[in-house]
Design brief:
Length: 335
Protein backbone atom coordinates (compact mmCIF):
# COMPACT_ATOMS: atom_id res chain seq x y z
CA UNK A 1 0.00 0.00 0.00
CA UNK A 2 1.28 3.47 -0.89
CA UNK A 3 1.37 5.99 1.95
CA UNK A 4 2.09 9.62 1.12
CA UNK A 5 2.75 11.98 4.01
CA UNK A 6 3.01 15.74 3.75
CA UNK A 7 5.48 16.89 6.40
CA UNK A 8 6.06 20.37 7.82
CA UNK A 9 9.04 21.58 9.88
CA UNK A 10 9.29 25.09 11.37
CA UNK A 11 10.97 24.66 14.75
CA UNK A 12 13.68 27.29 14.31
CA UNK A 13 14.71 29.32 11.26
CA UNK A 14 14.07 26.92 8.37
CA UNK A 15 10.62 26.71 6.82
CA UNK A 16 10.46 23.25 5.26
CA UNK A 17 7.85 21.01 3.65
CA UNK A 18 8.28 17.56 2.14
CA UNK A 19 6.30 14.71 0.68
CA UNK A 20 7.54 11.29 1.77
CA UNK A 21 6.39 7.98 0.32
CA UNK A 22 6.25 4.90 2.56
CA UNK A 23 8.56 6.47 5.12
CA UNK A 24 11.83 6.39 3.23
CA UNK A 25 11.32 7.66 -0.31
CA UNK A 26 11.54 11.46 -0.47
CA UNK A 27 9.47 12.85 -3.34
CA UNK A 28 10.23 16.45 -2.38
CA UNK A 29 12.06 18.29 0.40
CA UNK A 30 11.84 22.06 0.14
CA UNK A 31 13.83 24.16 2.63
CA UNK A 32 13.63 27.93 2.92
CA UNK A 33 16.48 29.11 5.15
CA UNK A 34 16.57 32.38 7.08
CA UNK A 35 20.34 32.36 7.71
CA UNK A 36 20.96 35.56 5.73
CA UNK A 37 18.19 37.33 7.66
CA UNK A 38 19.57 36.43 11.09
CA UNK A 39 23.27 36.95 10.28
CA UNK A 40 23.07 40.66 11.06
CA UNK A 41 21.74 39.84 14.55
CA UNK A 42 24.47 37.30 15.30
CA UNK A 43 21.90 34.53 15.88
CA UNK A 44 18.27 33.58 15.49
CA UNK A 45 15.75 36.18 16.68
CA UNK A 46 12.57 34.23 17.57
CA UNK A 47 10.05 36.91 16.61
CA UNK A 48 11.75 37.54 13.26
CA UNK A 49 11.86 33.78 12.59
CA UNK A 50 8.15 33.40 13.35
CA UNK A 51 7.12 36.24 11.06
CA UNK A 52 9.17 34.83 8.19
CA UNK A 53 7.61 31.39 8.68
CA UNK A 54 4.20 33.02 8.25
CA UNK A 55 5.37 34.64 5.03
CA UNK A 56 7.00 31.50 3.63
CA UNK A 57 4.95 28.49 4.65
CA UNK A 58 2.21 28.55 2.00
CA UNK A 59 4.76 28.93 -0.80
CA UNK A 60 7.03 26.23 0.58
CA UNK A 61 4.18 23.71 0.99
CA UNK A 62 2.87 24.46 -2.49
CA UNK A 63 6.34 23.90 -3.96
CA UNK A 64 6.72 20.61 -2.08
CA UNK A 65 3.40 19.36 -3.43
CA UNK A 66 4.21 20.49 -6.97
CA UNK A 67 7.70 18.97 -6.93
CA UNK A 68 6.30 15.66 -5.68
CA UNK A 69 3.59 15.82 -8.37
CA UNK A 70 0.83 14.88 -5.93
CA UNK A 71 -2.48 16.43 -4.92
CA UNK A 72 -3.95 16.82 -1.45
CA UNK A 73 -6.37 14.01 -2.29
CA UNK A 74 -3.38 11.66 -2.66
CA UNK A 75 -2.16 12.26 0.90
CA UNK A 76 -2.49 9.66 3.66
CA UNK A 77 -1.68 12.09 6.47
CA UNK A 78 0.05 15.34 7.41
CA UNK A 79 2.93 15.29 9.90
CA UNK A 80 4.34 18.30 11.73
CA UNK A 81 7.03 19.16 14.26
CA UNK A 82 5.30 20.30 17.45
CA UNK A 83 8.40 20.61 19.63
CA UNK A 84 10.95 21.24 20.92
CA UNK A 85 11.85 24.59 19.38
CA UNK A 86 10.90 28.25 19.29
CA UNK A 87 7.27 28.50 20.37
CA UNK A 88 6.21 31.09 17.80
CA UNK A 89 7.98 29.28 14.98
CA UNK A 90 6.44 25.93 15.95
CA UNK A 91 2.96 27.43 16.10
CA UNK A 92 3.13 28.44 12.43
CA UNK A 93 3.78 24.87 11.30
CA UNK A 94 1.33 23.30 13.73
CA UNK A 95 -1.46 25.67 12.70
CA UNK A 96 -0.89 25.03 9.02
CA UNK A 97 -0.80 21.25 9.47
CA UNK A 98 -4.00 21.32 11.52
CA UNK A 99 -5.70 23.31 8.76
CA UNK A 100 -4.63 20.78 6.11
CA UNK A 101 -5.80 17.90 8.31
CA UNK A 102 -9.21 19.50 8.87
CA UNK A 103 -9.72 20.66 5.29
CA UNK A 104 -8.82 17.30 3.73
CA UNK A 105 -10.07 15.08 6.58
CA UNK A 106 -6.75 13.23 6.87
CA UNK A 107 -4.89 12.16 10.03
CA UNK A 108 -2.66 14.64 11.85
CA UNK A 109 0.66 13.32 13.16
CA UNK A 110 2.61 15.16 15.87
CA UNK A 111 6.37 14.58 15.59
CA UNK A 112 9.09 15.31 18.13
CA UNK A 113 11.92 17.21 16.43
CA UNK A 114 14.58 14.94 17.98
CA UNK A 115 12.72 11.88 16.67
CA UNK A 116 12.92 13.52 13.26
CA UNK A 117 16.70 13.88 13.44
CA UNK A 118 17.06 10.19 14.25
CA UNK A 119 14.74 9.27 11.37
CA UNK A 120 16.88 11.20 8.87
CA UNK A 121 19.18 8.17 8.92
CA UNK A 122 16.42 5.87 7.68
CA UNK A 123 16.23 7.96 4.50
CA UNK A 124 19.99 7.92 3.85
CA UNK A 125 20.32 4.27 4.87
CA UNK A 126 17.24 2.32 3.67
CA UNK A 127 18.44 -0.90 5.33
CA UNK A 128 18.99 0.63 8.78
CA UNK A 129 16.69 -0.70 11.48
CA UNK A 130 16.60 -0.35 15.28
CA UNK A 131 17.92 -1.14 17.81
CA UNK A 132 21.03 1.08 17.94
CA UNK A 133 22.74 3.77 19.99
CA UNK A 134 22.36 7.27 18.57
CA UNK A 135 24.06 10.59 19.25
CA UNK A 136 21.80 13.55 18.45
CA UNK A 137 23.93 16.70 18.42
CA UNK A 138 22.56 20.01 17.20
CA UNK A 139 22.19 23.66 18.14
CA UNK A 140 19.61 22.86 20.78
CA UNK A 141 20.21 19.22 21.70
CA UNK A 142 22.95 16.83 22.73
CA UNK A 143 21.53 13.42 23.60
CA UNK A 144 22.78 9.85 23.62
CA UNK A 145 19.82 7.57 22.99
CA UNK A 146 19.10 3.88 22.93
CA UNK A 147 16.73 3.62 19.98
CA UNK A 148 14.78 0.48 20.79
CA UNK A 149 12.19 0.59 17.99
CA UNK A 150 11.08 3.14 15.42
CA UNK A 151 8.99 4.87 18.08
CA UNK A 152 10.57 3.86 21.42
CA UNK A 153 13.64 5.58 22.87
CA UNK A 154 15.61 5.62 26.10
CA UNK A 155 17.77 8.62 26.99
CA UNK A 156 21.16 7.40 28.19
CA UNK A 157 22.90 10.75 28.45
CA UNK A 158 22.37 14.42 27.69
CA UNK A 159 24.01 17.79 28.08
CA UNK A 160 23.58 19.45 31.45
CA UNK A 161 24.00 22.94 30.05
CA UNK A 162 24.88 24.10 26.52
CA UNK A 163 24.22 21.85 23.54
CA UNK A 164 27.22 21.12 21.31
CA UNK A 165 25.95 23.25 18.43
CA UNK A 166 25.09 26.07 20.83
CA UNK A 167 28.68 26.01 22.13
CA UNK A 168 30.01 26.23 18.55
CA UNK A 169 27.83 29.28 17.90
CA UNK A 170 28.93 31.01 21.12
CA UNK A 171 32.62 30.44 20.48
CA UNK A 172 32.24 31.62 16.89
CA UNK A 173 30.76 34.85 18.25
CA UNK A 174 33.53 35.25 20.84
CA UNK A 175 36.34 34.92 18.30
CA UNK A 176 34.58 37.12 15.78
CA UNK A 177 33.37 34.63 13.18
CA UNK A 178 29.67 35.47 13.28
CA UNK A 179 26.62 33.30 12.59
CA UNK A 180 26.14 30.42 11.84
CA UNK A 181 29.02 29.36 14.03
CA UNK A 182 29.43 25.63 13.43
CA UNK A 183 30.62 25.65 9.80
CA UNK A 184 32.79 28.73 10.41
CA UNK A 185 34.56 27.24 13.43
CA UNK A 186 35.12 23.99 11.52
CA UNK A 187 36.62 25.83 8.53
CA UNK A 188 38.93 27.94 10.71
CA UNK A 189 39.98 24.91 12.78
CA UNK A 190 41.47 23.33 9.65
CA UNK A 191 44.02 26.16 9.61
CA UNK A 192 45.05 25.68 13.23
CA UNK A 193 46.87 23.13 15.40
CA UNK A 194 44.71 20.89 17.56
CA UNK A 195 47.51 20.66 20.15
CA UNK A 196 48.41 24.36 20.41
CA UNK A 197 45.75 25.12 23.04
CA UNK A 198 44.12 22.51 25.27
CA UNK A 199 40.63 23.09 26.64
CA UNK A 200 38.94 20.97 29.35
CA UNK A 201 36.45 18.13 29.07
CA UNK A 202 33.99 17.27 31.83
CA UNK A 203 33.17 13.85 33.28
CA UNK A 204 30.27 13.12 35.67
CA UNK A 205 30.57 10.31 38.19
CA UNK A 206 26.79 9.89 38.50
CA UNK A 207 26.28 9.48 34.72
CA UNK A 208 29.33 8.84 32.51
CA UNK A 209 27.26 9.52 29.37
CA UNK A 210 26.26 13.09 30.24
CA UNK A 211 27.91 16.13 28.65
CA UNK A 212 28.76 19.67 29.73
CA UNK A 213 30.02 22.26 27.27
CA UNK A 214 29.73 25.44 29.36
CA UNK A 215 33.14 24.75 30.90
CA UNK A 216 34.99 24.58 27.59
CA UNK A 217 33.16 27.72 26.48
CA UNK A 218 34.21 29.56 29.65
CA UNK A 219 37.76 28.27 29.28
CA UNK A 220 38.00 29.74 25.77
CA UNK A 221 36.68 33.10 26.99
CA UNK A 222 39.13 33.14 29.92
CA UNK A 223 42.00 32.23 27.60
CA UNK A 224 41.13 35.16 25.32
CA UNK A 225 40.83 37.57 28.26
CA UNK A 226 44.22 36.49 29.61
CA UNK A 227 45.84 37.02 26.22
CA UNK A 228 44.20 40.41 25.95
CA UNK A 229 45.37 41.52 29.39
CA UNK A 230 48.92 40.46 28.59
CA UNK A 231 48.64 42.13 25.19
CA UNK A 232 49.69 38.88 23.53
CA UNK A 233 48.77 37.86 20.01
CA UNK A 234 45.84 35.46 19.62
CA UNK A 235 45.82 32.70 17.01
CA UNK A 236 42.10 32.25 16.30
CA UNK A 237 42.68 29.13 14.19
CA UNK A 238 44.44 27.38 17.07
CA UNK A 239 41.62 28.34 19.42
CA UNK A 240 39.02 26.98 16.99
CA UNK A 241 41.00 23.76 16.55
CA UNK A 242 41.49 23.25 20.29
CA UNK A 243 37.86 23.99 21.07
CA UNK A 244 36.58 21.67 18.33
CA UNK A 245 38.92 18.91 19.52
CA UNK A 246 37.55 19.13 23.06
CA UNK A 247 33.93 18.96 21.92
CA UNK A 248 34.50 16.18 19.37
CA UNK A 249 36.46 14.04 21.82
CA UNK A 250 33.78 14.38 24.50
CA UNK A 251 30.97 13.49 22.09
CA UNK A 252 32.89 10.51 20.72
CA UNK A 253 34.13 9.15 24.05
CA UNK A 254 30.79 9.32 25.85
CA UNK A 255 28.81 7.86 22.94
CA UNK A 256 31.27 5.00 22.42
CA UNK A 257 31.13 4.29 26.14
CA UNK A 258 27.34 4.03 25.95
CA UNK A 259 27.45 1.81 22.86
CA UNK A 260 29.93 -0.59 24.47
CA UNK A 261 27.99 -0.81 27.73
CA UNK A 262 24.72 -1.38 25.84
CA UNK A 263 26.32 -4.08 23.70
CA UNK A 264 25.30 -2.19 20.54
CA UNK A 265 26.73 -3.13 17.17
CA UNK A 266 25.31 -0.09 15.34
CA UNK A 267 26.20 3.53 16.04
CA UNK A 268 24.18 6.39 14.55
CA UNK A 269 24.85 10.14 14.34
CA UNK A 270 22.12 12.74 13.84
CA UNK A 271 21.53 16.49 14.04
CA UNK A 272 23.32 19.50 12.60
CA UNK A 273 26.63 18.84 14.37
CA UNK A 274 26.77 15.39 12.76
CA UNK A 275 27.72 17.19 9.52
CA UNK A 276 31.00 18.29 11.15
CA UNK A 277 33.90 16.63 9.35
CA UNK A 278 36.09 16.29 12.43
CA UNK A 279 33.26 14.60 14.34
CA UNK A 280 32.61 12.15 11.52
CA UNK A 281 36.32 11.32 11.23
CA UNK A 282 36.55 10.75 14.97
CA UNK A 283 33.55 8.40 14.98
CA UNK A 284 34.76 6.58 11.88
CA UNK A 285 38.11 5.85 13.53
CA UNK A 286 36.41 4.75 16.77
CA UNK A 287 33.90 2.57 14.92
CA UNK A 288 36.70 0.82 13.02
CA UNK A 289 38.59 0.25 16.24
CA UNK A 290 35.53 -1.15 18.05
CA UNK A 291 34.18 -2.95 14.95
CA UNK A 292 30.87 -1.07 15.01
CA UNK A 293 28.69 -0.16 12.06
CA UNK A 294 28.49 3.64 11.74
CA UNK A 295 25.63 5.57 10.12
CA UNK A 296 25.01 9.28 9.58
CA UNK A 297 22.70 11.25 7.28
CA UNK A 298 23.66 13.01 4.08
CA UNK A 299 24.43 16.70 4.82
CA UNK A 300 21.06 18.13 3.68
CA UNK A 301 19.31 15.82 6.17
CA UNK A 302 21.57 16.75 9.11
CA UNK A 303 20.08 20.20 9.51
CA UNK A 304 16.39 20.95 10.03
CA UNK A 305 14.23 19.63 7.18
CA UNK A 306 10.74 18.25 6.68
CA UNK A 307 11.77 14.97 5.01
CA UNK A 308 12.99 13.61 8.34
CA UNK A 309 9.67 14.66 9.93
CA UNK A 310 7.80 12.76 7.21
CA UNK A 311 9.89 9.66 7.85
CA UNK A 312 9.34 9.81 11.62
CA UNK A 313 5.67 10.53 11.00
CA UNK A 314 5.31 7.43 8.84
CA UNK A 315 6.18 5.12 11.74
CA UNK A 316 3.67 6.89 13.99
CA UNK A 317 1.14 6.54 11.16
CA UNK A 318 1.73 2.77 11.07
CA UNK A 319 1.04 2.68 14.82
CA UNK A 320 -2.17 4.74 14.40
CA UNK A 321 -0.61 7.32 16.69
CA UNK A 322 -2.55 10.42 15.66
CA UNK A 323 -3.12 13.86 17.17
CA UNK A 324 -6.40 15.77 17.21
CA UNK A 325 -7.41 19.39 16.74
CA UNK A 326 -6.26 20.26 20.27
CA UNK A 327 -2.60 19.75 19.28
CA UNK A 328 -0.43 22.62 20.46
CA UNK A 329 3.23 23.54 20.11
CA UNK A 330 5.48 22.61 23.05
CA UNK A 331 8.72 24.60 23.16
CA UNK A 332 10.51 22.36 25.70
CA UNK A 333 9.03 19.03 24.56
CA UNK A 334 10.82 16.00 25.97
CA UNK A 335 11.55 12.86 23.99
Amino acid sequence: MENLILAIESSCDETSAAVVKNGRQVLSNIISSQIDIHKKFGGVVPEVASRNHVLNISTVVAEAMETAAVSYDDLSAVAVTYGPGLIGALLVGVSYAKAVSAAKNIPLIAVNHIHGHIAANYITHPDLEPPFVCLVASGGHSHILHVKTYTEFEILGRTRDDAAGEAFDKIARVIGLGYPGGPKVEALAKEGSIDAVTFPQVEFSDNPYDFSFSGVKTSVINYLHTKEQKEEEVNRADIAAGFQKAVVEALTKHTLRAAENMGADKLVLAGGVSANGALRASFEAAARDKQLQLFYPQPVLCTDNAAMIGCAGFYKYKSNDFADSSLNAVANLKL
